[in-house]
Design a protein that fits this description.
mainly alpha, Arc Repressor Mutant, subunit A, Tetracycline Repressor, domain 2, 9 helices, about 65% helix
Length: about 220
């Protein structure tokens, strides 16, 4: 019988590959394995935080062999990176309302729903906390937000073409300005933002963009 790896370490199998965050995808095994493992990892993060994320525990929860999890994800940070990549892939697409205010309010309300969800809100708090002290988790979190900002940036570009905003307005800066106060409230006040908070954040971003604050 091969030697079992200790929790949090790579297996002793010389063929096992140490994964880098965001680079691992399932090979010949069914996608159900990935879904089960990522779901289990999200549960642990939401319930106990990053400090208690353990590959062996995740494998047990997902009813998947430990060797499979160690070989495919390689580390806690590799697993978190894949979880964030999956969350970005599964996020709802951009809403096109025909106006900048409508688009940004839709963005803000989507962020609010995510942060207000008991599981998702707790999960994001855990990942953000881990990112402050772990470089690989921080990089994975940045990639997650890059995907989401890129998804929503066209609503600002379209507003420029419609004449709602000045040419040279930085789309990414506007999109970040919408969600920033919602995350700040979650992290500093300990309460999920309301729909009114979401609309206020979007309206503030619109006003600032119209005033040329984000023009480069």
């Amino acid at each position: 019988m091969p030697e079992q790896a200790e929790p949090g370490t790579a297996p002793s199998d010389p063929g096992a590959v140490q994964a880098e965050p965001g680079t691992v995808r399932p090979g010949g095994r069914t996608a159900r394995v990935r879904a089960a493992v990522l779901d289990a990892a999200g549960d642990v993060l939401a319930e106990q935080g990053f400090a208690h994320l353990d590959l062996a525990d995740v494998a047990r929860r997902a009813e998947v062999g430990k060797t499979t999890v160690y070989r495919r994800w390689g580390s806690d940070t590799g697993l978190v990176a894949d979880l964030l990549a999956d969350m970005a892939e599964q996020s709802l697409p951009r809403t096109d309302t025909g106006t900048l205010r409508g688009d940004l309010r839709a963005n803000a309300r989507l962020v609010r729903r995510t942060l207000a969800d008991p599981r998702q809100g707790a999960l994001f708090r855990a990942v953000i906390a881990a990112a402050t002290c772990d470089d690989k988790t921080s990089a994975a979190l940045r990639r997650f937000y890059e995907v989401r900002v890129t998804e929503w940036a066209p609503c600002v570009e379209q507003a420029v073409r419609r004449g709602e905003l000045s040419p040279g307005t930085d789309p990414a800066a506007v999109v970040r300005a919408v969600s920033a106060p919602l995350y700040y409230q979650l992290l500093t006040a300990g309460s999920a933002p309301t729909e009114a908070d979401a609309d206020q954040a979007a309206d503030a971003a619109v006003a600032a963009a119209e005033a040329g604050v984000y023009t480069v």
